[in-house]
Structure formats: structure tokens, C-alpha cells
């Protein structure tokens, strides 16, 4: 008894799934076609909203990355200028600007100073 019930339910679900995919709609009457059309339009609207949200998020992330890149570029230019003014020898170049917004990790000399000269 339960097996027959599950089998009938599965058949009905497969038929509904075929209808939603646009297959085997010839057996539907006008009202059923209108309902199916509404369901599909609502689903499509949800997909479009989700897609638009994903695009907006990607644009926002790209803009943030561009801003960070610009800040790092400007910091690099500033560091080069300070090193040129100090003759590349001052190890307190970053410490002169205590109010700088650049993290401490970017301050200091290269780990292998000789490798910078070979380039």
C-alpha cells in the first residue's frame, strides 16, 4: 500500500518537474498553463535578483581592491622618495611617520639588502 502511494507521488512529481522544464505541456489546459507561466516568471525574477546581487558584490569587491592597490602604490612611491632622501641608509624611515596609516609590517629594510642591489 505504501509502496504504491510513494510510486504515485513520484510519478506526479516527475510530471510536475517536466512541466517546469517546459516539457510535456501539451496535456495542460489554459488555466494550468497560466499557473505554470506565473511560477516560471516568479522563479526567473528570483534568479535575476540573485544574479544582480552577485554582480553588485563583485563590483564592490573590485572597487575595494582597486583602492587598496592605489594606497599601496602611493605608499611605495612615498617609501622610495624617503629612501632616496635618506640615502637608503636610514633604518628609521617608517618610524619618522608615527601617524602613518600603513601597517608596521610594511616598515623596515628588506630581509636580504644585497638582493635589492642586484636587480
From TrEMBL:
Pfam families registered for this protein in UniProt: K-box
Record key words, sorted: Signal
Secretion signal, residue range per the UniProt entry: 1-22
Molecular function in Gene Ontology: DNA-binding transcription factor activity
UniProt domain K-box: residue ranges: 1-84
PROSITE patterns (alphabetical): K_BOX
Gene Ontology CC: one annotated term: nucleus
InterPro entries per record: TF_Kbox
Transmembrane residue ranges: none
Name of the protein this chain belongs to: K-box domain-containing protein
